[in-house]
Design goal:
Blueprint lengths: L3 H6 L6 H7 L7 E3 L5 E3 L14 E7 L9 H14 L4 E5 L4 H5 L7 E2 L2 E4 L1 H5 L5 H21 L6 E6 L3 E3 L9 E3 L10 E3 L1 E3 L4 H8 L3 H9 L2 E5 L4 E3 L6 H8 L6 E5 L4 E4 L14 H10 L2 E5 L7 H13 L5 E6 L1 H7 L12 H21 L4 E6 L6 H12 L4 E5 L1 H4 L5 H13 L14 H12 L4 E3 L2 H15 L4 E4 L19 E10 L4 E6 L18 E2 L5 E2 L3
Parallel strand pairs: 3-16, 3-17, 4-15, 4-16, 8-11, 17-18, 18-19, 20-22, 21-23
Antiparallel strand pairs: 1-2, 2-14, 5-6, 6-14, 7-12, 9-10, 12-13, 14-15, 22-23, 24-25
Helix pairs in contact: 3-16, 6-7, 6-9, 8-9, 12-13, 13-14
Length: 557
C-alpha cells in the first residue's frame, strides 16, 4: 500500500469553490487560499444562524500507545462513510502543530485512505493561523518588557511576570531562559521561558470565542503577572488587546478543505489535549452544525483528557452537546495495555488482550456513565488481528451494553467505515443523549479537580503543596472559583505516571503548578512533570522529511 503522503499526492481534489457550493456557502463569504483551501467569513453568513443544528458526533479514544489508535483517521473515515450512505456530513478537526510534525508524531491529517487534503499544506503552515497566534502572544510579551524598560508605570514586578513566550516548535532548550542580557539598552534582566504555541492561552481563547468582539474582550482579560503591590495586571492594562485582535482578525475565520473523497472539512484551531483543552474552534463547530446534518469532530487523546475537556469546557461554555460518541481502539493497543512489548504486538495473545481491555472499559465507562453519552466502540482493524481477538473485544463490550464495530477505513476509505456510519446514525437518532458535566460550576476548584481525578482517572485522592493549596484557595476567593479546570497531565496513562498501562486504581494525582487563564476562563492544573514545551525525540521526524527533484514533499506521514 502506498505511503500516506503518496496517497494524498494522488488525490483527485475538487476546487474549493465546488466544495463551498456543495455546502450552500455564499460566494462573498469564501476567501480562497489557492485552489484547494479557503477561509470562511462567518460575519457574512448571518442568515444561516436561524437554521437548525445537525447532529454532533464526538470521536475519542483509549489511552494512546506506541502502537497507534487512529482517532483522526477514524474521524475522517466516519465523515466520508456518512456521506457515502447519503447523509450531508462535515468534519471538524484541529490544525496540526509543527512541533509534533517534526518531532515524534509526524503529520496529523489522518492516514491511509482516510485523510484530509491538501495534506502537506495542512501539516506545514496551512493558512498561517498558528503564526498569527504566536505573533499575537509574543506581541504581548514584547509589550510587557518594553513597559518595564520605559519606566514601568504599572509597577510590574519582573519577578512575577507569568506570561511566557511561545514558538511552534518542540525546543527543550527554551523551557527556561533569561532575557534582557547585554546591558541596560536591552531591557530588564529577568527569568522567562517558552511554551509551544498550542499551549498558549491565546490559542485557548481563539478556540472558545464566538466573535471578534468576544476575542478582543477575552484577550484584554489575560493576566500577565503581578505588580509590586500584589495586584494582578492584565493585557488591557498594557493596551495590548486591540493590536493582538488585529493580528488574529483573519485567522479567526474557519479554514475549509476536503477529504480524499471530497467530504467538506473545517480545520481550525489546535490546542493540545494533554496541556490545553484539545478541541478545534467553537466557531468552526457551530458553523458546521448549521451547514450539515452530521458533524464529526474529535477531542484530543483519550476520553479521560480530550473528551472530558470537550464536555466540561467547550460544551459548558457554548451549550452544544454531542448526540453520540465513538471510542477508538486497536487490538494492538489493547494488548500493549495488557503488558505486551511493542515488537510482539502482531502475535495473537488473548491473555494480554483480556488484561488490556480494562483500559477500553474505563474509557467507555467515562463516556456512558460520567458524560452520559450514547457510545459505540470502533476497532481499527490491522491485518494481524485474529478472529478470536476481535470476538473477545466484542464479547467483553457486549456485557457493558456497548456495540463494537470493526472498521477498515485506513485501507478501504469510506467503504471500510460504512457499518460504523450506520451505527452512529442509529445512536444519534434513537439513543438518548443526556449529557452531563463531571462537576458543577459552583463546586470549588479543589472539588472540581478531585472529581475529575477520582471519577475519570480512577484516583483515590489529589494532593498539592501548602503553597499551591493556598494559591488555589486565593483564586477561589478572588472570584475565579466558578471557572472550569483544564488538567495538564500525561496522555499515556489514567495516572500521572506515563509508564503505568491499563486502568490503574488507587493512585494519587499530584498538582505541581496552577495557572490562571482569565482570558480563556479556566484554571490550568498541571500534574507531576508534564511539560508545556515538549522536546524532540532522539531521531526526530524532521530527519526523514525532504523534498525531491520534482518539488514534492517526501517523508511526511
Amino acid at each position: 500500500m502506498p505511503s500516506d503522503i503518496e496517497i494524498a499526492q494522488q488525490a483527485k481534489m475538487k476546487k474549493i469553490c465546488e466544495i463551498a457550493d456543495s455546502l450552500g456557502l455564499p460566494e462573498e463569504a469564501v476567501e480562497r487560499y489557492g485552489h484547494y483551501k479557503a477561509k470562511i467569513d462567518v460575519d457574512l453568513m448571518q442568515d444561516f444562524q436561524c437554521r437548525p443544528d445537525g447532529k454532533l458526533i464526538l470521536v475519542t479514544a483509549i489511552s494512546p500507545t506506541p502502537a497507534g489508535e487512529g482517532k483522526t483517521t477514524t474521524t475522517v473515515g466516519l465523515g466520508d462513510a456518512l456521506s457515502r450512505i447519503g447523509k450531508k456530513a462535515m468534519i471538524c478537526l484541529r490544525e496540526p502543530a509543527l512541533g509534533p510534525v517534526f518531532g515524534m508524531k509526524g503529520g496529523a491529517a489522518g492516514g491511509g485512505y482516510a485523510q484530509v487534503v491538501p495534506m502537506e499544506d495542512i501539516n506545514l503552515h496551512f493558512t498561517g493561523d498558528f503564526a498569527a497566534i504566536a505573533s499575537a502572544h509574543n506581541l504581548l510579551s514584547a509589550l510587557i518588557d518594553n513597559h518595564i524598560h520605559h519606566g514601568n508605570t504599572l509597577g510590574i514586578d519582573p519577578r512575577q511576570v507569568t506570561w511566557k513566550r511561545v514558538i511552534d516548535m518542540n525546543d527543550r532548550a527554551l523551557r527556561q531562559v533569561v532575557v534582557g542580557l547585554g546591558g541596560k539598552v536591552n531591557g530588564q534582566v529577568r527569568e522567562d521561558g517558552f511554551d509551544i504555541v498550542v499551549a498558549s492561552e491565546v490559542m485557548a481563547i481563539f478556540c472558545l470565542v464566538s466573535s471578534l468582539q468576544e476575542l478582543r474582550q477575552r484577550l484584554g482579560n489575560i493576566v500577565i503577572g503581578y505588580g509590586f503591590d500584589g495586584q494582578r495586571i492584565k493585557a488591557s492594562d498594557l493596551k495590548a488587546h486591540g493590536a493582538m485582535t488585529v493580528l488574529l482578525k483573519n485567522a479567526l475565520k474557519p479554514n475549509l478543505v476536503q477529504t480524499l473523497e471530497n467530504t467538506p472539512a473545517f480545520i481550525h484551531g489546535g490546542p493540545f489535549a494533554n496541556i490545553a483543552h484539545g478541541c478545534n474552534s467553537l466557531i468552526a463547530t457551530r458553523l458546521a452544525l448549521k451547514l450539515s446534518d452530521y458533524v464529526v469532530t474529535e477531542a484530543g487523546f483519550g476520553a479521560d483528557l480530550g473528551a472530558e475537556k470537550f464536555i466540561d469546557i467547550k460544551c459548558r461554555k457554548s451549550g452544544i452537546k454531542p448526540d453520540a460518541c465513538v471510542v477508538v481502539a486497536t487490538i494492538r493497543a489493547l494488548k500493549y495495555h495488557g503488558g505486551v512489548d511493542v515488537d510482539t504486538l502482531s502475535q495473537e495473545n488473548l491473555p494480554a488482550l483480556d488484561a488490556g481491555m480494562v483500559n477500553l472499559e474505563k474509557h467507555v465507562e467515562n463516556v456512558t456513565q460520567h458524560y452520559k453519552l450514547p457510545c459505540v466502540v470502533s476497532i481499527n482493524r490491522f491485518t494481524s488481528d485474529t478472529e478470536a481477538e476481535l470476538q473477545l473485544v466484542q464479547s467483553r463490550m457486549a456485557s457493558k451494553g456497548v456495540n463494537v464495530v470493526i472498521a477498515e477505513h485506513w485501507e478501504k476509505g469510506s467503504a471500510g467505515a460504512e457499518l460504523l456510519a450506520y451505527e452512529v446514525v442509529r445512536l444519534a437518532e434513537t439513543a438518548a443523549s443526556t449529557m452531563q458535566y463531571v462537576y458543577a460550576d459552583n463546586d470549588t476548584l479543589w472539588e472540581k479537580m478531585h472529581k475529575v481525578a477520582t471519577k475519570i482517572y480512577g484516583a483515590t485522592d489529589i494532593t498539592a503543596t501548602r503553597r499551591l493549596r493556598a494559591l488555589i484557595e486565593k483564586l477561589q476567593t478572588d472570584g475565579y472559583g466558578h471557572y472550569p479546570i483544564c488538567v495538564a497531565k500525561t496522555q499515556s496513562s489514567f495516572s500521572t505516571d506515563a509508564t503505568i498501562r491499563g486502568a490503574p486504581q488507587g493512585h494519587i494525582v499530584t498538582i505541581t503548578e496552577v495557572r490562571l487563564s482569565a482570558g480563556a476562563e479556566f484554571i490550568v492544573m498541571i500534574c507531576d512533570d508534564i511539560m508545556t514545551m515538549p522536546g524532540l525525540p532522539k531521531i526526530p521526524c524532521a530527519t526523514k522529511i525532504d523534498i525531491n527533484e520534482q518539488g514534492l514533499v517526501i517523508g511526511l506521514f
